[in-house]
């Protein structure tokens, strides 16, 4: 398929936009990245995703697919003949992977976001503690889902690996800003080794942003939040 027929509308710093890109890399599908500017919503984005008005959007010919994990499933199904499969083959394993992916988005990511915008030391500490608790649960999930193999998905990066792994860059930013280790060899040894393998994988290594670059983005976002609303 021609590269121009598959596009990802996103931003290089967005963990959600990373998800479809990694999925396309796994499937060896050629694609084009269309970058959105941080803090802005282009007319093109508003046209491509008029409902939620956010990235990422997969543009596949004349088809538009929104929401990062829905896009990952779409990619896995459309290019099903291209190995490896991203979603587990067994219905129960698929259900478990989706359950933990929802946990990542609905609880872990929310706690990480709250740690950066919380007002006051108490609220920030509560968010960090929620992240620590979440990582402990994800450590246990990794042990059970991986069954002794390198990734949540087994021998290859799978659905849950993509769902969680795309937050590793921002997790490092959170660690730096709070001067602490959240992925700790003593408390989450499985996740520590998993994170190293995930970031080194060919489908990921050229996509994962450097921590210093994300710190710069975080500072820009903080300034935008602090700026007075336009009258």
From TrEMBL:
It catalyses: RX + glutathione = an S-substituted glutathione + a halide anion + H(+). PROSITE patterns: GST_CTER (PS50405), GST_NTER (PS50404). PANTHER family: GLUTATHIONE S-TRANSFERASE U17, GLUTATHIONE S-TRANSFERASE, GST, SUPERFAMILY, GST DOMAIN CONTAINING. Its EC number is 2.5.1.18. Residues 90-229 form the GST C-terminal domain. Keywords: Cytoplasm, Detoxification, Transferase. Residues 4-83 form the GST N-terminal domain. This is Glutathione S-transferase. It comes from the Eukaryota. It comes from Xanthoceras sorbifolium. It is found in: Cytoplasm, Cytosol. Is involved in the conjugation of reduced glutathione to a wide number of exogenous and endogenous hydrophobic electrophiles. It is an enzyme of class 2 (transferase). Belongs to the GST superfamily. Tau family.
């Amino acid at each position: 398929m021609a590269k121009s027929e598959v596009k990802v509308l996103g931003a290089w710093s967005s963990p959600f936009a990373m998800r479809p890109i990694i999925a396309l890399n796994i499937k060896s599908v050629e694609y084009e990245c269309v970058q959105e500017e941080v803090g802005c919503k282009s007319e093109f984005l508003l046209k491509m995703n008029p409902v939620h008005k956010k990235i990422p959007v997969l543009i596949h010919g004349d088809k538009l697919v929104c929401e990062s994990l829905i896009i990952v499933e779409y990619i896995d199904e459309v290019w099903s003949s291209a190995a490896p499969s991203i979603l587990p083959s067994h219905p129960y394993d698929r259900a478990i992977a989706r359950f933990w992916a929802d946990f990542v988005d609905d609880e872990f990511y929310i706690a990480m976001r709250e740690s950066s915008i919380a007002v006051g030391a108490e609220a920030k500490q509560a968010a960090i503690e929620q992240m620590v608790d979440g990582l402990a649960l994800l450590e246990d999930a990794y042990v059970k889902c991986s069954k002794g193999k390198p990734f949540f998905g087994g021998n290859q990066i799978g659905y849950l690996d993509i769902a969680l792994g795309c937050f590793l860059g921002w997790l490092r930013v959170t660690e730096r800003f709070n001067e602490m280790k959240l992925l700790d060899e003593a408390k989450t040894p499985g996740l520590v080794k998993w994170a190293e393998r995930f970031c080194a994988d060919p489908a990921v290594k050229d996509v994962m942003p450097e921590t210093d670059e994300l710190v710069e983005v975080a500072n820009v976002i903080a300034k935008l939040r602090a700026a007075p609303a336009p009258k």
